[in-house]
Each structure stands twice: as structure tokens, then as C-alpha cells.
Amino acid sequence: MDRPTVSSRFDAVILAGGRARRLAGADKPASLVGGRRLIDIALAAVADAGTVVVVGPDRDLPDHVRQVREDPPFAGPAAAVAAGFAALGDLPDDRAVAVLAADLPFLRAAHIEALADHRDQERAPVALALDEEDQPQYLVGVWRAGSLRAALTGADASMRSLIPAEAAALALVGLADVDTPDDLADARRQADPVAAITAAAAALDPLAPADRAPDADVLGAVLAEPLRAVAPFPAFDTSAMDGYAVRGPAPWRLVGSAVRAGHDAPALTEPGSALPIATGAVLPPGAERVIRYEEVVVVGDNTLTSEVVGRDDTRRRGDSWAAGDDLLPAGTVVDAAAAGTARAAGVPLIRVRGPLRAVLHTSGDEVGADTGSGIADTASLPVTAALHGFGVRVTPGPHLPDSAAAMRAALGPDRTPGDVVIIIGATGRGAADHLRTALSAAGGRILLDGVPVRPGGSLLLAALPDGGAVVGLGGNPVAALTGAALCVPPVRDALVAAAPVAPEHLRVTGATALAHPRLWRAVPIDPDGVGGWVGRAVDSTAELRSLAGSRGLALLPPTGVGLARRLI
Ligand SMILES: Nc1nc2c(c(=O)[nH]1)N[C@H]1C(S)=C(S)[C@@H](COP(=O)(O)OP(=O)(O)OC[C@H]3O[C@@H](n4cnc5c(N)ncnc54)[C@H](O)[C@@H]3O)O[C@H]1N2
Ligand code: MOO
Fold first, then answer.
1. Does the beta carbon of 384 sit less than 6 angstroms from any atom of ligand 1?
2. Does the CB atom of residue 479 touch ligand 1 within 6 A?
3. Which of 315, 341, 375 is the last residue of a domain?
4. How far is the CA of 132 from the centre of ligand 2 (A)?
5. What is the pLDDT of residues 224-274, one digit of tens each?
6. CA 107 to centroid of ligand 2, rounded, Å
7. Nearest alpha carbon, ligand 1 atom 26
8. Which Gene Ontology biological process is one annotated for this entry (predicted)?
């Protein structure tokens, strides 16, 4: 059962059996963060351990993990550590033992390595992690086995009573634990900000459906009902190739000139007769099939034969679909292919939501001002371009000076018509930022206020009482673009009731050097030529130079370990 311990540097005890009182008794180690159970995150962090013991109720865990339970259950963490340590067997005093709780959503193997190194350097009985408030985490540590054995003798139920005075401590960034429902929600937001935005956007009411012609104006909308064929496709038997329409077995005699697409065809009345036919032409009455040129031999002036048996290059009426067939499900994005399908199926009007109409405002007294303290508006252009890429129709709204009245007007009932109001700037809580007060005056409901992303985390999503949505974007141009790329697709999908699509992940070279230790970082990306991507550093979020010519925008996970998420 155990994996070889020869090369491993340490063994591990993971506590996974507490009562989780502050989580209303939920099975905390089984809680999902970023799609993984907390227990699996802990196990991944000790993937290099020799023996791994999990103390807690029996769970579905990999075979190499030994599962034990303290006796009696819930006797306290020290008893649980004792039970786990006993299950490791008779360890030499100098063996290292990691002791961890299964409630650390951002714990990684590198943290355990760092603790083990630190304990070695300090020659300490144990090295514990320090949290952001510089408090030692008793359940994130690497022990010397002999010291843990000694500490467990005569300890009471608390972990604290185990800790020797000479314990070493090491600050580990971003190692928050999960105790409360708020902690869990925070961790989930941090684990996947796009999922957090998607969850917030789910509170928006979908738009009312409308009937629209399947033309260019409707691209980017989403089917509110399945697309049902009015006409079969093809609508008539038609030639799929340039060749000959023939009747009866070979040889055939040519009896007329070519049948052209879009024109009526003369009938083939006699067996052994043929007509040249163009791709897309109606199969002549009396013709049985079409044979492409390549497979026909012309003998003399007007006699044909073919050595290919059974060839038929006719597309028969209704081969693709019959009238009344459902062709595409509700929730499908109306792209050019979907609109083309509607046209081919003779559907004059399709019932859709969207395309989403956004009203885009810039804000701030300095923006566009013709004075020494003014600054050019550089944010609205990249945001508009990104919105177009997301299939959103953009109407520029009036520029909003830093006044409460202007902000109220942008959100009030007489605002520029649109489904979503997007405001660049004023998401901060500065003296001139009136967005939150104006939202509250308009009866708006804030659904999301900030995500752990940089730049662009200063992001606000709200719902107005009449069903309109409001997106506030950080004013720095790179933040505005990133915020739009993060927030608008989920808002669009909620408002137009689009079918969910799997997230697009990327492998980005150099991510660890570019990444933030705790936050997700948005970076421009370029193809590396071998199927992956390279990230670019952003010099300043106040200007866009480092994005010029880049081929996309990706969100790197905290520390850069793991897949990046494509935003653009
Ligand atoms: N005390 C703090 N101050 C700020 C923080 C913070 O965390 N604590 N975050 C900074 C970051 S990062 C951003 S982004 C902004 C977000 O605040 P706002 O959304 O209120 O943005 P503004 O203050 O209106 O503008 C920020 C910056 O961007 C310039 N700007 C605004 N609009 C445009 C435009 N259309 N084109 C070009 N540049 C624009 C504006 O002049 C400001 O320099 O808050 C920071 N402060
Ligand atoms: O949202 Mo601010 O950059 O992080 O520019």
C-alpha cells in the first residue's frame, strides 16, 4: 500500500475530521474550491511524501493514502495528530513529518518544501506557517518526528499545547484557511474569478425574446427557442457535383445542353440518355442519378460510359433535414453558421434574445479635458473593440463628469436605451466616485464588488430595478479592458440566456515570473509557435503600450502555477 519512502523527504498527517461548526457542520474537506475538494488540494501538496495518513471519516481517497480515525472521534486536533502520527509507524527521530489541516485552498507542495527547508536551517523541532496577520498556523507545519513524539506525550486536546517554545515560523503568502461560509466564498472567488462573476450575473433577469430576421444585424444574439425548419434541405433533388444526369444503365447518349443551376431542366424521357449538369442544378425529371465528370468516359461525340458502379452524386430533397425538424437548440449563439442554417431552412424570423446592447460611458473631469490636468480618453476604444468581439452592440453614452447628477442620469429611467450600462472609471471609493451612491439612488442592487484580479479587479456589477445591468470598470485603460473582458461575457450570457460553454484554458510560458502571489493577473499573450503562449509584462495600467499588437489577453492564476484562462 505505501509508496516507497526511500527517496521521499517526509511523511504526512492530514487532519480531515473536524466538526466544522462555523460551516454549519458541513464536510469541510469535501468542499470544492476551484473544482477540487479541499482534501485533494492537501493531498496534492504532499504528493512527494512517503507515507500519507488522513485522519477523519472514511472517504474516497487514492489507494496509497492510509485512513485512520482518532478514538473517540472529535477528541480534538491533538488527539487526531496523535492518531495519524501513530499510523506512520515507528519513525526515526530525524524523519520530517508534515502536519496539515485539510482546509487550505491555496496550499501547494512548494509551501511544504519551504517549511521543511526552514526547519532544517533553523534546526527547530517544527517550522510552522505564519498567516497574513503573523499568527502561527498550528496545522500547517513540518515537524521533526522525535519532537512531535515528545510533544504528543502529555499534551491536552489543543494543538497549541503541542507547540514547543523553540518552534520556527515562516511567513507563507496567501495561505488563508477556510472556517466560515464567507471564507469559502472568498476562496472560491479567488480560485476562479470568472466563476464568481458568472455566479453574480446569474441574478440578472434574461432579456425578453424578440423575432428577428436571420441577417447580419442579429449576429451575436442567442436562440430563445429551438430553430425549427420551415423547408427541407435541400428543397429539391440537386446535383452535388459537376457531371452528368443519367437515366438507366450505361452507356448513355447525350440528349441536350447543360442543365444550369438556378434554371429549369428539360426531362430525360428515354433510358440510356444523359444531360451535362452543374453543381446545384435541379435534377432533371426522369433522371435517376448524377455521376461526376471524373468518373465518366466520353466515347465519340455524344456517348458516355462509366466503370464506377453505383455512384450517385445527387443530394436528395430533405437529405440534411425535413420541414419541422429542430435544427439547433435554444441557447445557441446566432453566429454566421446559425443564421445561414435558418436561411437554408426557410425560417423568415428567429426568436432570439440580444444581441446585447451596451451603452458605454467614460467618466471623470480630467478625461478628455482640454487643460493642463486633462488626459486623453484611451480606455473607450479598446473596451469598444473588445465588446464588438463579444458580439455586443455599443452605443457611446455621454461622458460623465464627476458629479452625482451626471451619474444618476446615466442610471435613471431616462438613460440612453440599452441592456447594460458600462461606465469606465468611478469604481473606486474616492471623493469623486459617485457610482455607488447613484446606484443606490436608482434602487440598484450590487451583485459583485471587486474580484481578486489585477489589473481590472476594481469591478462592479449591479442590477437596476427595471432589469438593466450596470458594469463599472476601473478607470485605468488596462484595468477597463481587463474588467470588460472579465465581466461582459458572463453578463451577456446571463442576459441572453446562452448555453454554458466550457472555459478556454491556455498554457502560458513564463507565467510564474509574471504572476501575482495571491491575485489573478491579466497579461497580454502571444503565440509561442509550438502550440502554447507567452505572456507579456504590463508596464503600467495607465497606458496601453504593452498590449499593442498582442494576440490575446489571459488570466494567470495566483503564483502562475496551473492553466491560464483566456479572456480575449
Ligand atoms: N486608494 C486606492 N486608490 C486606488 C486603488 C486602490 O486600490 N486604492 N486602485 C487604483 C486602481 S488599480 C484603479 S484601476 C483605479 C480604479 O478607480 P476608478 O474606477 O474610480 O477610476 P478613476 O479614478 O476614475 O480613474 C483611474 C485612472 O484612470 C484614468 N482614466 C479614467 N478614465 C479614463 C479613460 N477613459 N481613458 C484614459 N484614462 C482614464 C484616470 O484619469 C485615473 O488616472 O483606482 C486606483 N486608485
Ligand atoms: O484595477 Mo487597477 O489596475 O488594478 O489598474
1. no
2. yes
3. 315
4. 22
5. 999 999 999 999 999 999 999 999 999 999 999 999 999 998 999 999 999
6. 26
7. 475
8. Mo-molybdopterin cofactor biosynthetic process
Interior angle at CA 212, CA 210 and CA 216, nearest 5: 135
**Residue 97 maps to a domain:** yes
Q: Is the separation of the CB atoms in 335 and 201 below 8 Å?
A: no
Domain co-membership, 269 together with 370: no
Q: Ligand 2: distance of its center to the CA of 483 in Å? A: 9
454 pocket-lining for ligand 2 (C-beta < 6 Å): yes
Residue range of the domain that includes 348: 210-232+320-353
Q: Is 476 in the pocket of ligand 2 (CB under 6 A)?
A: yes
Q: Could you tell me if 349 and 361 lie in one domain?
A: no
Indicate if 161 and 64 belong to the same structural domain.
yes
SS3 content of the chain, % helix, strand, coil (to 5): 25, 25, 50
Burial 31-51 (b: 16+ CB within 10 A, else e): bebeeebbbbbbbebbeebbb
Give the end of a domain, one of 447, 467, 495: 495
ipTM for the assembly: 0.94
Show the CA angle centred on residue 545, arms to residues 543 and 560, nearest 5°: 90
Query: Does residue 165 lie within any of the structural domains?
Result: yes
- What is the 337 CA–ligand 2 centroid distance (Å)? 38
Please tell me whether the overall predicted TM-score, pTM, comes out greater than 0.90 for this model: no
Q: Identify whether residues 277 and 148 lie together within a single domain.
A: no
Give pLDDT tens digits for 511-563: 989 998 778 999 999 999 999 999 999 989 999 999 999 999 999 987 787 78
In a domain, 524, yes or no: yes
Same domain, 40 and 124: yes
Please give the distance, rounded to the nearest whole angstrom, from the Cα atom of residue 566 to the centre of ligand 1: 24
Ligand 1 atom at minimum distance from 476 CA: 28
The ligand whose atoms approach the alpha carbon of 401 most closely is: 1
